[in-house]
Amino acid sequence: MPEIPGVSAPWRGVHVATALPFHDDDELSVDYEGYAAHVRFLAEHGCDGVCPNGSLGEYQTLTDEERARVVRVAVEAAPEGFGVMPGVAAYGAMESRRWAEQAREAGAQAVLALPPNSYRADREAVVGHYREVARAGLPVVAYNNPHDTKVDLTPELLAELHGEGLIVAVKEFSGDVRRAYEIAERSPGLDLLIGADDVLLELGLAGAVGWIAGYPNAIPEVTMELYRLATSGVGTDLEKALPLYRALHPLLRWDSRTEFVQAIKVSMDLAGLRGGSCRPPRSRLTGEVAARVVQETETVLGLGYR
């Protein structure tokens, strides 16, 4: 398993899948200074790291130059001890490996890798894909999102990937919280990371040691407190965690919906942060959906949560 000198399990803890700000010009150019400021803001508010170039960071709309620069900006903005774990998703395995190499050269500590997502890949193709990404030499966190990729990293397949030394952890986004227990049974050394905001409590109690998170972009302090209360081995306090989870859950659900990027950016704007516009094809929320996001965000902020 790849190791980073002086760093122990840098994929653990709360890594925010960062939203990416754009300038309000015709090209919606990337606001790199604004992004660096957001990385520093998350570090100052207790988060453990960031995951640039995930879906929340709209990596699919970036040029290669923009995508590479986003990683470099995150690394440069990160204070000592604050992790950077870029997403390296791509249609081709060799392209994913090249993004992992770019992350290593920029100074990242680990990478987050989806399985092949250009078609419904079989077991052999999935294993081959992760072998290629692992060649870059950084620890690889697998990202299981069968809803979007149509490839399911089942507990059995994860055990094979982990047994071969290709992955160190899994971001579990299937929504099936029962899987946490089978993953632990089949792969005792594989770290479970919470992959969706609205299953934080369930996977935290099931033994997760990290969270790749959406809503800390907008409300980092209260979500970090919820993580601490809900995560086994950190100081679990269900009596305090459950009412807080209930209060936040209407908002946290947006992380698992189609409009999650726009919703989180709206919440950031309402919290006085830099959310802003999305690049096409995502468009600004309107009508009932926009009204619900605004109302649910204002309810949370009105309770004094930030």
TrEMBL record:
<comment type="similarity">
    <text>Belongs to the DapA family.</text>
</comment>
<keyword id="KW-0456">Lyase</keyword>
<dbReference type="Pfam" id="PF00701">
    <property type="entry name" value="DHDPS"/>
</dbReference>
<dbReference type="InterPro" id="IPR002220">
    <property type="entry name" value="DapA-like"/>
</dbReference>
<protein>
    <submittedName>
        <fullName>Dihydrodipicolinate synthase family protein</fullName>
    </submittedName>
</protein>
